[in-house]
Design a protein that fits this description.
single chain, alpha/beta, binds zinc ion
């Protein structure tokens, strides 16, 4: 069995994180809790599992995880009794989830020296849920370690942050993300486009891939960049595309983010992604001012969608402004 996906030392990138975790593991005392803070999709959960594996690995000759002992095998297959992951339930970690957790950790771990509890996306934790966790987080019963994860662009309650050692995660960059996507079986050009569109986040890139967002992006950007498009003549096609975009529902904000990236690339004359996609930069010769206006139109659309305005209408107005 290959141990590379389990031992965090074998993961690509995040050198600072590896250093910090290595230091914590070789010191005499682990903190009670870590807060893994960083953008979406850059490996926070993989590192959480990797740290749990390293702590409970039965092979004491290595600092990391061996990948072969019974503890490593159980973690890898997702059946470790002393590895608990709490995820937001409908957008937030609720007080009931925390109460159950507090009860669980009042018992000693089943079979390992340390029970590892991962609380994902604590930026989405309600204040009362956080408050009911504070005492436990400050002084957990012996044999328990907390790993909290949070999105770096979102506010985390200071009461949680102050009780944890913060471990900062960064985006992996386009090259590493491309390599990682290719190991997932993607062809190089597609991998590179996705790496750019995700701004160096493999997790986000894989989600874009799964949701076929790039296909849609190519179609919309290709249409809008085409110098032969004429608003009066092609209005039917434009309305049809607007309707398709409006149907994206929960992935709609992500799609608007991709459109923003396209306009930003044009503004900074960064054309790699357009060339790779076979769209080309178009010959519409938009001025910087026009491009800024288009960026603002995307912002406006985002705000209106946040206010639950009519999706079809918002997308129609947006496409009219973008073409
Ligand atoms: Zn092991």
């Amino acid at each position: 069995m290959s141990h590379s996906p389990l031992c965090y030392n074998h993961l690509l990138g995040q050198e600072k994180v590896k250093q910090l975790l290595g230091k914590a593991l070789t010191s005499d005392r682990l903190p009670h809790g870590f807060l893994f803070k960083g953008p979406d999709g850059v490996g926070k959960c993989l590192y959480a599992r990797g740290l749990a594996a390293a702590i409970n690995c039965k092979d004491t000759t290595t600092i990391g995880a061996c990948g072969n002992c019974s503890s490593c095998r159980k973690l890898y297959s997702g059946n470790h009794p002393d590895y608990t992951v709490i995820r937001p339930d409908k957008g937030a970690i609720k007080i009931d989830q925390v109460r159950q957790l507090v009860k669980l950790i009042s018992y000693p771990p089943y079979e390992s020296p340390v029970r590892v509890v991962v609380l994902e996306d604590v930026h989405a934790m309600r204040r009362e849920a956080a408050n009911s966790l504070l005492k436990t987080l400050e002084e957990p019963p012996v044999g328990n370690l907390f790993i909290l994860t949070a999105d770096s662009s979102r506010e985390v309650l200071a009461t949680l942050t102050s009780r944890c050692q913060v471990v900062p995660f960064v985006t992996l960059g386009v090259d590493i993300t491309t390599t990682l996507l290719m190991t997932h079986g993607l062809e190089e050009t597609d991998a590179r486009i996705l790496a750019r569109l995700s701004e160096g986040s493999p997790g986000v890139a894989l989600t874009l891939h799964r949701d076929e967002m790039v296909v849609m992006w190519r179609e919309v950007v290709g249409f809008l960049s085409d110098p032969a498009i004429h608003v009066n003549r092609d209005v039917g096609q434009l309305l049809c595309l607007a309707e398709k975009i409006a149907k994206l529902k929960e992935t709609l904000p992500t799609f608007l983010g991709l459109l923003r990236l396209w306009i930003r690339d044009l503004l900074f004359e960064e054309t790699e992604i357009l060339t790779l996609s076979g769209i080309g930069i178009g010959v519409k010769n938009w001025s910087s001012k026009e491009l800024y206006n288009k960026l603002q139109a995307i912002d406006r659309a985002e705000q209106e969608l946040g206010r639950n305005c009519n999706k079809n209408l918002v997308c129609e107005v947006l496409l009219f402004t973008l073409q």
